[in-house]
Request: fold
Amino acid sequence: GRIDLHVVNHTGVEQAQLLLDRSAWVDTAVTAADVTSLADFRYLFAQEEVASGTEYPIEQLTFLYSGLVNDTLDSDRKDHGEILDRQERQRQNIIYEICAPRGAVVKAPSEGILAVFSEDWDAARAALEIQREIGAGPNSAALRTGLHSGPCSITKSSNGLDYVGSTLDITTRL
Reply:
């Protein structure tokens, strides 16, 4: 319902500070964890996120690691350029499947891709799509994909926004 608030200052000096807190906004609030896990934010503000040398704890994010497994086993029987082209196409497909459901690539070293999601379900959907897209069909490849949710810290590295903590270590080892 409606609340009327009347404030009276008897000091003769203009001084007032009023703080209103409304808990109904929580379902529409956005957190730093939500924003920094969006691909557009990471692209547009790659060098602007946090001050160098600082770490900020995040209660929970979901990380996905996906990489090709033993993709060079048959390299003696195939053209090296063909293998590299196929690997690059597969990496681009993985990146697309990560970004489609509101995820963002954190790191993309040659052996795999580490991504972040603010919602568990978005990460699971991306993992399933990556498996469907890359792990099936005539040009399929063996994939290693791991998901893990938990606490982490956000920091700035030489490559921009980065996450640290045991949650990431576990993800890359699954």
The chain has a mean pLDDT of 80. Residues 74 and 83 are 9 Å apart (CA to CA).
